[in-house]
Structure formats: structure tokens, C-alpha cells
Amino acid sequence: MALNNTYDARLVQQETAVGAGVQILLLALIGSAIGMGPAGWVTGLAFAIATWAVLSRALHRAGSRTFGPANRVTLGRATLVGGVTALVADSFQDSPPVSLFVGLTAVALLLDGVDGKVARRTGTSTALGARFDMEVDAFLILVLSVYVSMAMGPWALLIGAMRYVFVAAARVWPWLTAPLPPSTARKTVAALQGVLLLVAASAYLPHGVNVGVVALALALLVWSFGRDVLWLFRTHRATQAAPVTVGRRARRELVAS
């Protein structure tokens, strides 16, 4: 039995290594196509190594014996995000071809809903898979906001940074880590972020319209985060107040008796 577990664990690690290899192959294809500079190469390689290291450690800690079809889709999306990241890093020296940038990003966004459906249909939904999917989404939004900010100013970075600020705040206020109720509005706003940022990044529309598109994305995100934080705060206050209320009621009953 131990041998089987070891064998399965090695297969899982091999899949993450294959993912890193595919990432490097994609970088090589992009580099040969556009003549990518050192910044793009270094950033892309760093992304590939970091993804492999973090994912391998997470799978080991979770004791995963199989990688799963949904995680394979997410890993494919991560590979595309790595390509987009390299293009954005390279854009500080030279603008990337719009068609390549839009193509990689669009496919990564389209695949966003595929991994979840695959996980549900195959019965392979896991907390690790959901977290992997969320982190890939969040990083793509961060990279797109960096690219858009070069044309619109630092305020656009708030879109990509907001989720990471929320995570940092949760270390100070642990009540922010409480589970949230399902919300279609939250999912819709999250999905719109990538679409709206890609529309602005493509520069197909006039600059003024693109500014409005990014401002809309930011406004929707502020509303969504604000609503969730308010719900978490009220729930936290209610939870804290409940023991006090019960204690007072018990004391009153004791005095009355």
C-alpha cells in the first residue's frame, strides 16, 4: 500500500513538472515569434518555477494521490497566464503584438469556467482545486491591471491589488476569513473584471471609453468587496454579541428564581 501511495505521489509531482515544462515551451514559442527581451524571459521563467514549487508543496501537504482532470485545466490556464505575464513584463521595453496578447488572455478567461464544470461532472472537486483556480484568476487580474495602468495611471492597479489587500487584512482581522454565502452577483463581478480589463488592454476603443470601462470594473469590484466585508463584519458582531446576550438572560433567570 505504501508503494502505491508513493507511486501516486510521484505521478502527481510529475504532472506539475510537465506543467512547468509546457510553460517554458510556450515562452520559447513566444520568444521566437516576437523576439522577447530579458525582462519577459526572466518574469516568465520565475512564474513557471514559482507555480511548480507552490503547487507541488500544496499537493504534498494535501496528500493528493491524483492530480485530477479539473486541475489539469487550471494548470493549462496557469500556463497561459504565465505567457501573458511574460508579455506584460516585456511591454515595459516594447509593446507586445495585440493579437497575441488578446488571444492568450481570451483563452485563459474562456477556460475559467471549464475547470469548475469538469470538477463537478467528474466528482473531483477539492478545496485545493478551488484555491488553485482562485489564485490563477487573481493573478491574471493583477497582471492585466498592471498592463492597463501603464496607459491609465496607478489607480487601475487597485483592481488587481484589492484581493491581495483583503488577504493581508484578514491576517489582522481573522473574521474576514469566515465563509461567505454563495452569491451570483459576486461571481458575475469577478468574471467581468477580466473581460473589462481585456477590452481596455486591447485598445480597440477610444482612450476615454477605455478609462470608463476600467472605472466601471473598479466600481463593481469595490461594491462587491464592500458588500462582503460588511456582511462579514455584521456576522462577526452578531456572533460576539450572542454569548453576552445568553449570559445576561441566564443571570436574569437565576435572579428571578
From TrEMBL:
Q: Which domain of life is it from?
A: Bacteria
Which residue spans traverse the membrane?
A: 20-53, 211-233
Q: Could you tell me which PROSITE patterns the record lists for this protein?
A: CDP_ALCOHOL_P_TRANSF
InterPro entries, per this entry? CDP-OH_P_trans, CDP-OH_PTrfase_TM_dom, CDP_ALCOHOL_P_TRANSF_CS
Q: Which UniProt keywords apply?
A: Membrane, Transferase, Transmembrane, Transmembrane helix
What family does the Swiss-Prot or TrEMBL record give for this protein? Belongs to the CDP-alcohol phosphatidyltransferase class-I family.
Q: What is this protein called?
A: CDP-alcohol phosphatidyltransferase family protein
Lineage summary = Bacteria, Bacillati, Actinomycetota, Actinomycetes, Kitasatosporales
